[in-house]
Every structure is written in C-alpha cells, then in structure tokens.
Amino acid sequence: MKKIIFLVFLFSFTLQAQMVKDTTVVEKDTVIDVKSSWYGRSMFTALTTGGDAKNETLSQRITRNIEIGKSFGSVDVGLALGEYKHSVIDSTSIKYTELRLTMDACQFGIFSNEISVGAGYVFQSKTPVMMEISSTLFAQIEAHWGLGFVFGNVDFVGNYNDMNKSFFGLYFRYGLMRNEGGILTNKLRIIETSRRHRLRKKHTIF
Questions:
Q1: Model's pTM, two decimal places?
Q2: Is 201 inside any structural domain?
Q3: At residue 147, does pLDDT exceed 60?
Q4: Using CA atoms, how far apart are residues 58 and 179, in angstroms rounded to an integer?
Q5: What distance, in Å, lies between the first and last C-alpha atoms of the chain?
Q6: Any domain includes 35
Q7: Alpha helices in the chain (DSSP H)
Q8: What is d(CA 119, CA 85) in angstroms, rounded to the nearest whole number?
Q9: Quick one: which H or E segment has residue 165?
C-alpha cells in the first residue's frame, strides 16, 4: 500500500519540459543611399517650334531620342541617339548622337526640376555640330521609373549655315529615385525572422 501511494505521489509531480517555438516573419522596406547607378531615358514624343519650323507640317516637327547613361549623385551623364524629322537646311530628316549632362537642380518629394546641357554630332548634315540646353519637370511615379515634361533649345552650326530649333515634349526615365538632398536612393525589402521560446510545463498524473 505504501508503495502504491509513493508511486502516485512520484508520478503526480513528474514534469516534462516542452519547448514551444513560435516563429514570426516580418517584412519591411528600408531605403539606402547609392553612389551610382545606370539609367535609361526616352523622349518618346516631342515637337519643334520657332522660326526654323515655318512651312513644316506637324509630322515634320516630330523629334525623338533615347539616352543611356550613369547617375552619380545628383548628376546624370549619358549618350543619346535621336532624330529630327525635318531640317530646313538639309531638306531631309537628320539623325544625331549627343553627350548629355543632366543635373537635378531641385527635388521636392517625388517631383524634381532638372537642367540639361549637351553637345553632339549630326550625321550627313550641313550643320554637323549641335548644342542643347533644356529643362525638365519630372515625377518619380514608381520606385524605378517616372514621367516628365521637357522643353529646350538646340543650335545647329556648320561652316556656312546654322539654324535653331526649340522643342517641348514628354519623356520616360528608368532609374533610381533621388531624395530631397539629390542623393540616389534604393528601396530594399528586408525579411526578419524572430523566434520566441516559451517553456510549457506539462503535468503527467498517473
């Protein structure tokens, strides 16, 4: 009888340690500064105006270009390839390549004002040297792309001829966003996993 009571008493206070692991996964975005990054830009539709555009049809005033380059802080350095549908001096369309420097002059949230200067070469033209100055109003719609409005002026110079074209249009840019200090930023998704351990005591009664 004593042995039975002893066994009941012993087993009633037997503790079995059970480790319960609760795993929590947390996803959050973090923004980091980036020194440099590649970008692409396309002025997919624009029209020329001014005195040298007289007697030109609307289709002859179209100009387009595409630009690829690298961003360093608040500055973009890129190489552009483009075309003007009509040149008064050459009486035909002209294609060109241009080295362009763009600076982020002002940034407010997702909106920015950029100033661009460029110099290029016009193929098979009587005015082979081109010089550009332009300004943009840009909106970074998503983390890596945005749309903007551009307006500017281009001078074409040759040995005996010169002409001037003003233009305005829309462009698309793919690249990293800048903060209000003009610094390139990149948004990263970080996944954090945490485990919480809880010691649960289980009483086993005979």
A1: 0.72
A2: no
A3: yes
A4: 39
A5: 16
A6: yes
A7: 2-12
A8: 19
A9: strand 162-174
What is the chain's mean pLDDT, rounded?
81
Instruction: Write the pLDDT tens digit of every residue in 36-86.
Output: 899 999 999 899 987 666 777 888 889 999 999 999 989 999 999 999 887
Q: Which residue in 164, 160, 82, 85 sits closest to 126, CA to CA?
A: 160
What residues contact 91, with CB distance under 8 A and at least 6 apart?
none
The count of structural domains within the chain is 1
Tell me which long-range contacts 15-21 makes (C-beta under 8 A, separation of at least 24): 15/201, 15/202, 15/203, 16/201, 16/202, 16/204, 17/199, 17/201, 18/199, 18/200, 18/201, 18/202, 19/197, 19/198, 19/199, 19/200, 20/197, 20/198, 20/199, 20/200, 21/195, 21/196, 21/197
What residue numbers bound the domain in which 100 lies? 30-189
